[in-house]
User: Fold these one by one.
Assistant:
Number 1:
Amino acid sequence: MSTRKITLPEDWVVVLLGLGTIFLSLLGLIVPKPNFNWTNVSEFQTTVLQSANLQAIGYQFLLVLLTAVIGALLLGKSIRATVIVVPVVFLLSLIALFFAGNSVVKEFNLEAVIFSLAIGLLISNLFKLPIWFKAVLNAEFYVKIGLILLGTSVIFGDILEAGARGLVQALLVVLSVWYFAFWLCKKLKIDKEMSLMLSSAVSICGVSAAIATSGAIEGDSKKLSYVISLVLITAIPMMIFMPYIADWMGLSQAVTGAWLGGSIDTTGAVVASGSLVGEEALKISTIVKFSQNVLLGIAAFAISIYWTYNSAKKAEHVEKPTLSIIWERFPKFVLGFVFASLLFSFAVSEDTYANVKDSLKSIQGLWFALAFTSIGLETNIKDLFGHESKKPLYAFLIAQTFNIAITLVIAVILFG
């Protein structure tokens, strides 16, 4: 009698594992959040390498390894190879988190994912990794789990706290910049995958938006890495110079804050630049950026439906895609993201949320770091920065310039 392995589609496995992590936290099994912040070598040794902190890192490792093994089991993949590869990826990602935790690095808003990608690229381009090793790397799997955990931080009640003007600006900026960027990409004949990721990144909330969009359309990891690199690199000069430009233009703190929050793509850079201006600017910039972050879930859901419908239509050629075909192609992890958001918005108490949010946020960041380490390990650097990358670069810079201009106009109208 033959035995047959029972496997599940990856998206459903991701939903089970992502929500499983969330429910374990809600039931009291909270993985402590490690501290990666340090200023000098002495502080690194006494804080980051402290026994209690190393223990917290160890707990996160066990969670990741257990999740990966269960995932491999449900997906019918090699458990032995998973047990070998995952610790290596975790160790490399941990090094990236160490780098990103440095105070000087934080000033430049360089996130852990960029170090993860760089470390992975360095290793994969200096050494030839075994085929079986690369076969186990599953960046998409890691990203999707991280995105489901991201849903726990998208709280609908916070939209109201963000204020009407902040939400109105976020809607106007996201819609206008997204459509302009997408139109521009189409004019430059950039492929639709890259166009969607680039448009979402420049209009919504940078790295998270690019990752969410890539997950929704099952995008090319190399294209995602390129878009994220653009986001992080351009955020640095914007963070530094925009506050001084606003001062030169004589803008009020409220207008400046709205301008910074609506145009700078990463939350960390928004906070840093807002702090350079003043307390009111910091508050307004954070509100506006948070309003844009909240729209991420809606945008990811809409993009999922758009991509699924168009993919089905293309595959069917003649017949109009049916609901069953759309459902079959729809990325199910988005449902996990939405469920997590609704759960934490309406069912989880404030006290419970306060207890678990730091842990879940840390685990989410870890999954993203693991994903980009994996992307780096399976990517040839020539593919990432080849000659074909010029058009997306031009599109991003032009769209970002449009973003800065239109956001300034809207900020002056709403907050002036």
Note: The mean pLDDT is 82.
Number 2:
Amino acid sequence: MSAKIDWNSIRNLAQRVLEGDEPLELTEGTRALLLRTAQEVGISQPDAEDALRSVTTASTLLKEVVRRIDDGADRLDDARLAMYDLRDQGDLEGACKQMRDVLAVEVVPVYRKRAEGMLEEMTQLAEVAASGRVSASLPDRDQLAALERRIQQGHALELAEELCALLRRTAPTAGIIEAETEEALKSPGGAEALMRMILSRFREGKKRITRALFRMTSLRDAGNLDGARQQMRDVLAVEVVPLYREMAEEQLRGLDGPPPES
């Protein structure tokens, strides 16, 4: 099976045949497309070859292939969103269950692989929350959030070398200077306060830029460019997280540039 999967061709065929009036013609190219895609969605080569013996069974195969692609995509997207919501609420076991439920029914290999990857990440985050030990393979801020929940459950923060390194990496991304970081790392209490500050700045900054972008877009579309610009200026007046400052600055540059061609 090819490492790169492109389902545009099978979708186009399904649209012409299943949604339109075009008859299915089992040309060499169509047979090859159906045979390859069937295997990509978990249908064995013998079963696919058997289905290609007639137009009727080939049409049924086409329907099943597209159903697996669409149902699997919807299932994985719904589970992914639920997983992240549960993760953000601190329910890592519930987050893991979302992907376990997908794997209990999913047959499309590429969707299974993605679900397995997300399950592995959530399982490792749960281990961070349970043990207090950070991992080199997980996103930094996700681990800080897991450690924050661990502290909220009454566990003490251990100032291990790996944790100090993680805090030193993430503090600048929240606009915290090195001297402030090093002072905080002199004690577990200071490290806890530093961790809360990092997470708080990102949470508040995300809310701020999201609201401002929504208002900016509405004002811009209404023709009020000055009002749209002011939304980004208001963000820059208070924002300290470099990522969100860069987003606001980029939007301002776009608003100050020439209008897009219609």
Note: Residues 55-88 form the longest helix (34 residues).
